[in-house]
Every structure is written in C-alpha cells, then in structure tokens.
Amino acid sequence: QLQLVESGGGLVQPGGSLRLSCGVSGFTFDYYTIGWFRQAPGKEREGVSCVSSGGGRTKYADSVKGRFTISRDNAKNTVYLQMNSLKPEDTAVYYCAATVLFSLSLHDYTTWGQGTQVTVSS
Question: Got the DSSP string for 72-98?
C-alpha cells in the first residue's frame, strides 16, 4: 500500500527556516518523482517543487525559487524541502505526492500524504 507521510511543519517567524520531510513506503521509492504542493485557506492547491526519481532534476514554482531547496535520499526513502527566508504568504498546508512523470502539475499525481501545517507569522 502506497503511503507518504509529511513532517516538520510548525510556526516560524518571517525570515526563518523550516525543513519538511516526506517519508515514503509501500512502493519502489526511486521509481517515482516526488512533489511538494501547498494549499492556503481559500486558495487552490499549487505546486511548489518536485524532484525526479534519481534526484538529478528539480523544478520550482517562481514564488519559491532561490528560497526553497528540494532533495531526496533514496537510501532513506525520504524527500526533503528546505525552506529559507520564509514569508507570511508561505503559510499553508504542505503536501507531498508521487507520480511516475516529471511534473509539477497536481493533476499528474496519484498518491498524496495527509499534509503538514506551516505558519509564518510574528
């Protein structure tokens, strides 16, 4: 059974940092692209970043380029999202998800985690 579990969310002040983790089980981890998405209250879910199965390719939304870094450790079946210089507009529930494509379109993702809350506020 495919399962993704996010962790690492919390409350942080503007300009601070957080690292999110996405633990994956139940399938061949290094076969899948893993993406991070977020959904703020009253807004649609949007793509944040994704990393290819081998880790060699990454993609970022314009709003997080230069501030967020995605990486994966295939030995630990885990994908990380390092978030620096956080802004109040980064506040959202963050989800990780899996797809066989290299894509940041949420419609291409078939398996999702339950989400972790990130709140950026002073």
Answer: EETTTTEEEEEE-S--GGG-EEEEEEE
Handedness of CA 23, 28, 30, 31 (dihedral sign): negative
**pLDDT tens column, 22-71:** 999 987 888 899 999 999 999 999 999 999 998 899 999 999 999 999 99
Q: What does the pLDDT look like over 80-99, one tens digit per residue?
A: 999 999 999 999 999 999 99
How far apart are alpha carbons 38 and 93 in whole angstroms?
5
Spatial separation of the C-alpha atoms in residues 43 and 92, rounded to whole Å:
9
Instruction: Say whether 100 sits in a helix, a strand or coil.
Output: coil
Helix (H/G/I), strand (E/B), else coil: 29:
helix
- Residue 49 C-beta-side C-alpha neighbours within 13 Å: 23
Compute the distance between CA of residue 108 and CA of residue 16 in angstroms, rounded to an integer. 31
